Amino acid sequence: MTLLRQLMIVVVLIFVLLFSANFVLTVLESRGYLEEQMRVHAEDTATSLGLSMTTALAQQDNTNLELLTAAVFDRGYYSSISLIDLEGEALVTRTNPIAVADVPHWFTQLLNLPTPAGTSEITNGWTRLGTLTVVAHPGSAYRDLWRLTVDFLYLFGFIVVLSYGLLGFMVSLVMRPLRAVEAQADDICERKFPVQEQIPRTRELRRVVEAMNRMSQKLKIMFDSQIQLTESLRLEAKTDAVTGLINRREFDALIAAELQSESGPGSNLLILLQIRDFSKINQQLGFVQADALLKQIGERLKVALGTRNEAIICRRNGAEFAIFVPRINLELARLSLEQSFQQVASLQQLTDSDFLDTTHLGAAFTEYPIEFSLLLTDADTALRNAQAEGTNGTYFLIHGDSQNPVSDLVKQAGEWRSTLLEVIRSKNFLFHYQPVYQLRANGERTLFANEIFVRIEVDDQVISAGVFMPMAERFELLVELDQLIIDRALTNIEQNGPPIVINLSTYSLQNDEFRSWFYQQLTLHRHNASRVIFELQEHAVHLAYDDVRLLVQAGNSLGYQFSVDHFGSGATSFAYLQSLDVHFIKIDRSFVSDLDQKTDNQFFVRSVAQIAHARDMWLIAEGVEREEELEILRSLGTDAAMGYLLGRPGPDISLT
User: Fold this and answer.
1) Alpha carbon of 14 to those of 1, 24, 25, 117: distances in Å?
2) Tell me: the pLDDT tens digits for 553-593?
3) What's the topology of domain 3-161?
4) Of the N and C termini of the chain, which has fewer Cβ atoms inside 10 Å?
5) 85 Cβ partners below 8 Å, 6+ apart?
6) Residue 43 has pLDDT above 60, yes or no
7) Whole-number CA gyration radius for the chain
8) pLDDT digits 0-9 by tens, 189-201
9) CATH superfamily for domain 248-406
10) Whole-angstrom Cα distance, residue 514 to residue 153?
């Protein structure tokens, strides 16, 4: 029950008590007054009528007696008039029943007014002629009291309604700060930490609001400090102190995770850059200037690859750098190598005649997924070939030979376009499902959801999304392909099965037409909203935060759930978690691999779990391949997990 309703009940009860007491007193006072008035009126009437009847009674003129009696009685103010002679016989008798048409019967029964009588002795000189008795009729008194009661009730109702309105207005003014405090408390639970700008004038409420503001500010500082500490430790563990790029360990982990992922890249590029005889540069420039040169090289590489947002750049050791670019075609791969070389070789320190044989880049390109060790070997071979040529330069090597069965499936550009257009036309693609299990404290695990991985069939071979999705993006077919996949997934949801996880590509999320279409699909399939989880790449959050935030808000309002994939893999600040209302965080597999042997990654996972749980989010781990990894994840607070240990993607449902 609301405070307003409770206060109104109390006010009404008080009014009822006051009204009842006032009404009883008023009625009693009015009753006494009217009773006395009727008595006096009856006596006066008896006296005056008796005098008028003296002559007629003395002459025994009964007709005149009847006329005089009727003239008085017909006014309706008397219930009876009777004239009795000395022998006790009634000479004239008139009676009027006590009934009031416009007054409720229960009201007359409740008040039961008396009927006072007036008596007059009729004499002629010293001779008594008879006795006249006039009894007052209470009808007019009942009408006056009933009118008074009705007016009183109307007044009471008006006062109650007016009081309710005034009380509601006052309570609304008083409750406005309290409602703001309630909303502020809810926001604090969501880790939004607002501060109320409007401070109420009421002293008690002002103290409450000011206390809530202080608490919100301090909690925000604590939460931000936790996020900053986690981010700083993460950066410290994975960043090279000289250049600010990621270090070799982090680079290898990210690339391995990318290549092993079910949705990993098909075609990719690895570039190795080495400044030969860097010790000579140290001697000539000094350690400070040499470190500054390394930092400049890192900055120049970022400029060269600025349009390729997914590029990963690291300093491996000394004066050796590595660049990995996923989902890139052959033409852009060659261009990336050339731009990287031009940016670095044009540095003033490296244009000196003494350093014309110091800057070399080797690139290895593959159009299909291969192991990182093979790709690294190719890149190292390309680097040695570039160095063997004697001057600053590059060498580009394309991986692929007849010994790799997948190489037969690598299509030329025109063939890929035709293949993808046919897939879109025929809607001929496969859904493979990988289970996601909820981890329970007692060691048990239960199926929580199934994540969808898309496959196409080419020449009787099943091709993963990591191979054909980059081609679809290259030929600007990815938006149309994503629409078909999402529509098919939403249309074929199993009513009794677990929820499904649908990946949204970063490319499509940046497309206005796709977002407009996606909003329509959310509304169209809202009856299945509770069974759908949409997964966003953390990279997409960084690139199109405003669009992603609006999309998540729209989906949440309809009952859909959202997850952030590859969490922690990029340089994005965790601060977006305070305003992006997602339900799940899927930590990148680079933090999961060999987690039981890496204490720094354990600290990171535990910190992310605490941040997620503080926002009522689940933490999900991907890429779990060993039982030891699963157990340490469980102990660190991970809510769910997926990986080859728990189940490989399989064609549970084939949609063709």
Assistant:
1) 19, 15, 17, 41
2) 999 999 999 999 988 876 556 677 777 889 999 998 888 98
3) Beta-Lactamase (3.30.450)
4) N
5) 91, 129, 130
6) yes
7) 48
8) 766 778 888 888 7
9) Reverse transcriptase/Diguanylate cyclase domain (3.30.70.270)
10) 66
